[in-house]
């Protein structure tokens, strides 16, 4: 059995305490999101006709909502390094649905997501409200996707996507798929664009399975969400921003993707080793 076919960790908390935590944390996060949307949506009605695709105000609201949500959940968050300035995109490893909150908390970004997400109840509405760019996983749509990337990036948006193409158990970084990297090599973007690799590492609560925050295979979102809300206490997540890579310094999409993957994978492996050493010392 490979890692992606392995059963999820047995970390589901049960009993009255778990139910109380689910209600307390869940309601708190929902109220934070609703409050954020009540400000974001009316502001977007002004922002859109004045600035078009450029979103100078509303990403600040999304960032604040995600930071408060992580605080309410109890997941400790730390950022190392600084988001780049100027035009560019971001790539990161993908472990969990929690990445959406974590990476929005770290920087003011717009996610790139598969087109199916737009139709998901609740999540699709939130994704559209926060400026997510939806793309079809179809090679025949590559030219149209490149045009969408150009339009958003030239408007000043900072796009973020997950080149692994799927989430993991949090203990590994999968090979980067190179398809979307081709968009950065258009004549309009290549001379002016940089790509910033970001590593996200989750540390499980003491005594819990190291895969606690991972979301992979056929795991159901609802079950994982409830298990996460019910945890007696949470661990922490570290977000590391690496030095930006100038697109013009690379010959093609494969070379750029390989450089980004090395940066993300190297820091992830180092953090995993440190986590293992700490657990060994405690035992």
How does the SSE layout of this entry go?
Blueprint: H1 16-51, H2 58-73, E1 76-80, E2 88-92, H3 98-106, E3 110-114, H4 123-129, E4 133-135, H5 142-154, E5 159-161, E6 194-203, H6 221-230, E7 236-241, E8 245-246, H7 253-282
Parallel strand pairs: 1-7, 2-5, 2-6, 3-4, 3-5
Antiparallel strand pairs: 6-7, 6-8
Folded structure, characterized:
The chain is α/β, with parallel strands linked by helices. It has a single domain, classed as 3-Layer(aba) Sandwich (Glycerol-3-phosphate (1)-acyltransferase), CATH 3.40.1130. 43% of the residues lie in helices and 14% in strands. Strands 1, 2, 3, 4, 5, 6, 7 and 8 form an eight-stranded mixed β-sheet that branches. Helix 4 links the parallel strand 3 and strand 4. The longest helix is centred in the N-terminal third of the chain and has 36 residues. It is globular, with a radius of gyration of 19 Å. It starts with 15 loop residues before the first helix and ends with a helix.
Short synopsis of the structure:
The protein has helices at 16-51, 58-73, 98-106, 123-129, 142-154, 221-230, 253-282; strands at 76-80, 88-92, 110-114, 133-135, 159-161, 194-203, 236-241, 245-246.
The count of domains is: 1
Q: Which fold name fills CATH's third level, the topology? A: Glycerol-3-phosphate (1)-acyltransferase
CATH class: Alpha Beta
Q: Mind telling me which CATH architecture this is?
A: 3-Layer(aba) Sandwich
The DSSP helix count reads 7
First-last Cα distance: 28 Å
How many extended strands? 8
Question: Rg, please?
Answer: 19 Å
Q: What would you call the structural class?
A: alpha/beta
Q: What series of H and E elements makes up the topology?
A: HHEEHEHEHEEHEEH
Estimate percent helicity.
Answer: 40-55%
Low-confidence stretches: none
């Amino acid at each position: 059995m490979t890692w992606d076919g392995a059963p999820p960790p047995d970390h589901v908390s049960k009993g009255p305490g778990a139910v109380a935590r689910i209600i307390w944390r869940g309601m708190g996060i929902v109220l934070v999101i609703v409050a954020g949307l009540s400000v974001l949506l009316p502001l977007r009605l002004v922002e859109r006709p004045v600035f078009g695709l450029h979103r100078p105000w509303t990403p600040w609201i999304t960032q604040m909502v995600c930071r408060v949500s992580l605080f309410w959940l109890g997941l400790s968050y730390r950022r190392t390094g600084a988001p780049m300035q100027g035009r560019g995109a971001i790539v990161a490893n993908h472990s969990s649905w929690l990445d959406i909150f974590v990476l929005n908390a770290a920087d003011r970004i717009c996610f790139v997501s598969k087109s199916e997400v737009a139709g998901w109840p609740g999540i699709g509405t939130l994704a559209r409200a926060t400026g997510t760019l939806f793309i079809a996983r179809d090679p025949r749509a590559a030219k149209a996707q490149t045009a969408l990337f150009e339009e958003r990036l030239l408007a000043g948006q900072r796009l973020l996507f997950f080149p692994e193409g799927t989430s993991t158990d949090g203990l590994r970084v999968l090979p980067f798929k190179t398809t979307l990297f081709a968009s950065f090599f258009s004549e309009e973007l290549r001379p002016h664009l940089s790509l910033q690799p970001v590593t996200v590492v989750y540390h499980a609560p003491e005594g819990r399975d190291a895969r606690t925050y991972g979301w992979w295979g056929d795991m159901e979102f609802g079950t994982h969400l409830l298990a996460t809300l019910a945890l007696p206490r949470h661990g922490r997540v570290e977000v590391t921003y690496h030095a930006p890579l100038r697109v013009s310094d690379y010959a093609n999409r494969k070379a750029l993707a390989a450089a980004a993957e090395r940066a993300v994978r190297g820091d992830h492996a180092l953090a995993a080793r440190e986590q293992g050493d700490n657990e060994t010392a405690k035992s």
